[in-house]
Design goal:
heterodimer; A: mainly alpha; 2 domains; 6 helices; B: mainly alpha; globular
Chain lengths: ~180, ~500
């Protein structure tokens, strides 16, 4: 007689619990904060925050139950099957890239984003765009000088001509 | 009436009017492709140019430009995951995943043709509907609007996939975000934390851009590869396939267009709402709902068709009653004043030729724009094979400017960055983003209509027959996925599919 293997129960991910706890905190804060307002102002946010609290509590209870059932299943099926429960990810998918990128890649990407938006706020769009484009292509993209300079000049020039001159769209001007 | 209908076509086909319309189409094409610089903003910028024009010429320019932005907005949504317009956000959900697996041609073909079909259906409906729909629109009050809003929220169930509770949590969070700003009842700032910027509430555009495009740009920065993998590309055959898809799934196109027209007619509901309702409906009625969000062609068709049809819908109350059905229509109302036209009965009697010319402009502008876009598709698709590092500066510029132009406030960039963080976290931990966005769109509306309904009818509004009919529809839509899944379980089990070889990636999503 073959023993029946229980249906795999995936482990609870710490990130899921943290997000649910964060949302619970947001809803609790919103509920308490709403108490300061007149009835007509607070009615809807209060209703919403109460619903959010209920959903978050149910979700967290669900995580607790899932963790318990996972432990039961792991004990029955053995630890080696734990990894088999993971779904095979497509290596081109955004989930896969976020999940597998190393700490250095994350740090570099976030640093570039920070540099771009800080420069946008400080120096404005017409200085940031050509300079950032040139720096990013040279350093992160390891591109040649000629291509980088042409790209930076075209990007800056087009932006200035189309958005600045032709359409006169307001642009981040920087603080200088 | 028929004579006027065809006479108005001749008016539009006058060389001078056609040239003006082509200029409008060219501007609309570029504006639609550029994220953030919305059709309504550009309409407002172009209003001063129509002072010296005849009414038909003025609408050829403005309307030609406006309807084209909705069509070409899908191009950036599909190719780069950056919505060209807030109303093109739903196209990103499936269009961009298709691009990433090398099916950009197919996605673009489907999006562009379904957009045209939506516009044609919308224009046809516009020509027929004004006298018929007048009593219906006037019969709608706040209780019916509230029920329509709740109907939109019902689609959270469908849009959450397997994570319904996560979807509800995200939707509740989104509704809280929607409540930021001055309370319309008492004028009290809510969740504004003494920040003047937050008194106006949080704009949808930076949220959409951050939530969807921000995460995708970060992915490009991390992977440094092109958006699409050349080895997975199906090359040009994809365009024809996309075109065939629109005919194969004609009912999705027709139903999504109908949703766009109906919601477009209802003032205050807006295009951002209708795209999600159409998308949710398409997912709910699809035989493969699990593919939505992963590159479903039906999702692309629903979003594309709806996007253009809603513009025609929003023109109906604008022309017939002077009540703009959307922001763009409100700006267009300004053109009525500038050209000396009075929206209302006059537009159906003495100025009927102008009304019909609008129908022809919508048809011709879309046909011209889509023909041009189809000619450029091959070149556009090649953009997705450019190395990621070359695209990143361009996309970061689009993110920054797109967010900033929402209200010309630097804080919009911070909102966009915050939304990008939320988007990354949501993707990484598999929390659905669409219910959040849907709730942001509908949250404020739901509260406003709830209070208006109560002020006008107390709780008796709950017993109105129209409200009860809409409530029954809501219950049906909420329960239907469960009924369908239960019926599916009751059927004989289907044999498991034969495992595909690892390299057969081209069949994903078929």
């Amino acid at each position: 007689m073959v023993a029946r293997t229980a249906r795999p129960v995936p482990a609870v991910r710490a990130g899921d619990v943290v997000i649910a706890l964060f949302l619970l905190a947001v809803f609790v804060f919103a509920y308490l904060h709403a108490q300061e307002w007149p009835f007509r102002t607070r009615f809807f946010p209060e209703l919403l925050a109460a619903a959010g609290i209920a959903f978050a509590v149910i979700k967290l209870a669900g995580f607790g139950l899932q963790a318990y059932r996972h432990r039961q299943w792991a004990r029955q099926a053995g630890d080696e099957t734990d990894e088999q429960a993971d779904e095979q990810a497509d290596e081109h998918s955004i989930e896969y890239v976020f999940g597998t990128a190393g700490g250095r890649a994350w740090l570099a990407a976030l640093a570039w984003v920070t540099v771009f938006f800080t420069s946008l706020l400080v120096f404005g769009v017409f200085i940031t765009v050509p300079l950032f484009t040139l720096a990013y292509l040279k350093i992160a993209g390891s591109a040649g000088w000629l291509g980088s300079v042409i790209y930076a000049a075209v990007a800056g020039g087009l932006l200035w001509f189309v958005c600045g001159e032709l359409l006169a769209v307001p642009m981040p001007a920087g603080i200088f | 009436m028929f004579q006027t209908f065809f006479q108005s076509l001749l008016e539009v086909l006058q060389p001078e009017t056609m040239l003006i319309m082509l200029a409008g189409i060219a501007i609309g094409f570029v504006v639609g492709v550029l994220p953030g610089l919305g059709g309504s903003v550009t309409l407002a910028l172009m209003l001063p140019f129509v002072f010296d024009m005849e009414p038909v010429q003025a609408f050829a320019f403005l309307l030609g430009m406006w309807v084209v932005t909705a069509t070409t907005g899908d191009i950036t949504s599909v190719l780069f995951g950056v919505p060209g317009e807030a109303t093109s956000a739903a196209t990103v959900f499936d269009g961009y995943p298709m691009t990433k697996r090398g099916e950009a041609g197919r996605a673009l073909g489907a999006a562009l043709l379904s957009s045209t079909q939506g516009a044609l259906l919308g224009a046809f409906f516009l020509a027929l509907s004004v006298p018929i729909l007048r009593p219906m629109v006037l019969a709608f009050g706040p209780p019916e609007f509230l029920m329509m809003t709740l109907l939109g929220l019902t689609f959270v169930v469908a849009l959450s996939g397997r994570n319904v509770l996560k979807g509800f949590l995200m939707a509740a969070f989104g509704m809280l975000v929607a409540l930021v700003g001055i309370d319309p009842q008492e004028g009290v700032p809510r969740f504004a934390f003494d920040q003047l910027y937050l008194w106006d509430g949080i704009d949808l555009v930076p949220l959409v851009i951050g939530l969807f495009a921000g995460a995708e740009v970060l992915q490009l920065m991390l992977s440094k590869t092109s958006i699409a993998d050349k080895t997975m590309a199906k090359e040009i055959s994809g365009i024809g396939q996309g075109v065939r898809d629109t005919f194969r799934h004609w009912s999705v196109v027709v139903r999504s267009s109908a949703i766009g027209i109906v919601i477009g007619i209802i003032p205050g509901m807006g295009g951002s709402v209708s795209q999600f309702i159409a998308y949710g409906h398409a997912q709910q009625t699809s035989k493969h709902p699990e593919q939505f969000g992963k590159g479903s062609i039906e999702g692309v068709l629903a979003a594309g068709a709806n996007n253009n049809a809603k513009d025609a819908g929003s023109l109906i109350p604008t022309i017939a009653f002077g009540i703009p059905g959307s922001v763009g229509a409100a700006v267009l109302l300004g053109a009525f004043m500038i050209t000396g036209l009075n929206p209302g009965p006059e537009m159906l009697t003495t100025n009927l030729n102008v009304t019909f010319s609008m129908v022809w402009i919508m048809v011709l502008a879309n046909i011209v724009a889509v023909a041009v876009a189809f000619l450029l598709i091959r070149q556009l698709v090649k953009l997705t094979y450019i190395p990621g590092t070359w695209l990143v500066p361009f996309l970061l510029i689009l993110l920054g400017i797109g967010a900033f132009t929402a209200s010309n406030n630097i804080n919009d960039i911070f909102v966009m960055l915050g939304a990008a963080v939320l988007g990354v976290v949501a993707i990484h931990w598999d929390w659905p983003r669409v219910p959040f966005l849907l709730a942001v769109v509908l949250g404020g509306l739901a509260e406003r209509y709830l209070f208006l309904s109560y002020s006008l009818h107390e709780w008796f509004w709950l017993t109105k027959p129209s409200v009860l009919v809409l409530a029954a529809l809501i219950i049906f839509i909420a329960v239907w996925p469960y009924v369908r899944s239960a019926r599916g379980r009751g059927k004989k089990p289907v044999p498991a599919p034969v495992e595909q070889p690892d390299d057969d990636l081209t069949k994903v999503g078929k």
